[in-house]
Amino acid sequence: MSGFFDIYSIIFLIIAVVIFMRLGSVLGRRTGNEPSPYDNPVKAPQAGTRPDGARNDNVVALPPRGATPPTDASELEPLARHAAPGTPAHDGLVAIARATPGFDAGHFISGAKAAYEMIVTAYAQGDRTTLKNLLAPDVYDGFTAAIDEREKKGEKAELTFVGIDEAKISSAELAGTIARISVRFVAELITATRDKDNAVIDGDATEVQTIRDSWTFSRDTGSRDPNWKLVATEAV
User: Fold this and answer.
1) Residue 191: pLDDT band by 50, 70, 90 thresholds?
2) Distance, CA of 174 to CA of 31 (rounded, Å)
């Protein structure tokens, strides 16, 4: 009986060690979405919260640590899916990728789309906290001035975000350490503005509208701050 007990004890011990090692390999692996020690330490409850409740404080998440800038043609090839080689936009993306370890244009587009939805929704709701996290100071001042004027008149903005049909990089450049990427959006929204008597004075509360915008995002590649900020907007 003693030998029987010892054999099974050893088997259970081996199973426990294997499980422990596999858990360690999973829990110890970085995904690239973990909070960065350089992120803004101020965490307001509603800041960067998507309508579905998911967190998304950054336009683009911090690249994985230890990544190295791309150097050869094969590593830069994915950029051609977002801008034709030989164009200023492609040259700009190449420069940004070389200055930003872990930069991924596809990931950037995904983050820019999330930021677009967050910003237009926050503007309609008058959510200044979320806007401050995502906008450059001068753009933030312009947005909040419009919100202040709307509230002063007793007006209310309504917005239903239907979706983004298209988001494409239209230009990219690296000036010194400052990276700028412009994205052309085609989005569908239901938007209307009501006066203090609840009458619609702008837009349509029932009709889906197609909106075309060009937004420019920027960040300092020499900074520890991984966040891209909206620095310019233009109706297309």
Assistant:
1) very high
2) 27
Q: Strand pairing of 200-203 and 229-235? A: unpaired
Residue 29: how many CB atoms within 10 A of its CB? Answer: 7
Q: Angle CA(88)–CA(89)–CA(92) in degrees, nearest 5?
A: 85
Which of 35, 181, 39 shows the shortest CA–CA distance to 104? 181
> How many whole angstroms separate alpha carbon 215 and alpha carbon 96?
18
Q: Would you state the pLDDT for residue 135?
A: 97
Calpha distance 126→113 (Å, rounded): 20
Residue 20 lies in a domain: no
What's the number of domains the chain is made of?
A: 1
Is 208 within a domain? yes
Q: Tell me the CATH number at 123.
A: 3.10.450.240
| Within a domain: 40 | yes
- Domain, as residue range, for 113: 31-235
Residue 109 has pLDDT above 70, yes or no: yes
204: three-class secondary structure by DSSP: coil
pLDDT digits (tens, 9 = 90+) for 19-44: 444 434 333 343 343 333 333 333 33
Rounded to whole angstroms, how far apart are CA atoms 119 and 161? Answer: 11
In a domain, 102, yes or no: yes
Single pTM value for the model: 0.71
